[in-house]
């Protein structure tokens, strides 16, 4: 997407999701692809050791790992995920994420 005339979110074009966002040393990077009243689709890239502290969300969300390895804790239950795996985060359940290795994920939040 180096062409400055293209939108930051692809419209009717094929993209490689894992290549559509880059890792940044010591950081969590996000890129929103869809932001609608009914839900959002966001790409994330977590550098090794980075994460999101425990929080809740009022909506169900689906997480798909596209690269790397992550540890997720949902309502006290730890999960280990690798590239190609997914899980559902239920609404109103506390959850946290940590990059065991740098990882990329696609988060689909369903609001309705």
Automatic annotation (TrEMBL):
Pfam families: Cupin_2 (PF07883)
Family annotation (CDD domains): cupin_HP0902-like
TM stretches of this protein: none
Domain Cupin type-2 residue range list: 43-108
UniProt superkingdom: Bacteria
Protein name according to UniProt: Cupin domain-containing protein
């Amino acid at each position: 997407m180096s062409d400055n005339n293209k939108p930051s979110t692809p419209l009717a074009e094929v993209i490689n999701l894992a290549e559509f966002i880059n890792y940044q040393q010591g950081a969590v990077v996000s890129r929103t692809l869809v932001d609608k009243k009914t839900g959002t689709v966001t790409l994330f890239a977590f550098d090794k050791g980075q994460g999101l502290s425990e929080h809740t969300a009022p909506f169900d969300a689906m997480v798909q790992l596209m690269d790397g390895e992550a540890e997720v804790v949902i309502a006290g239950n730890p999960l280990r995920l690798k590239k190609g795996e997914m899980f559902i985060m239920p609404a109103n359940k506390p959850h946290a994420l940590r990059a065991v290795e740098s990882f990329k994920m696609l988060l689909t939040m369903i609001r309705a």
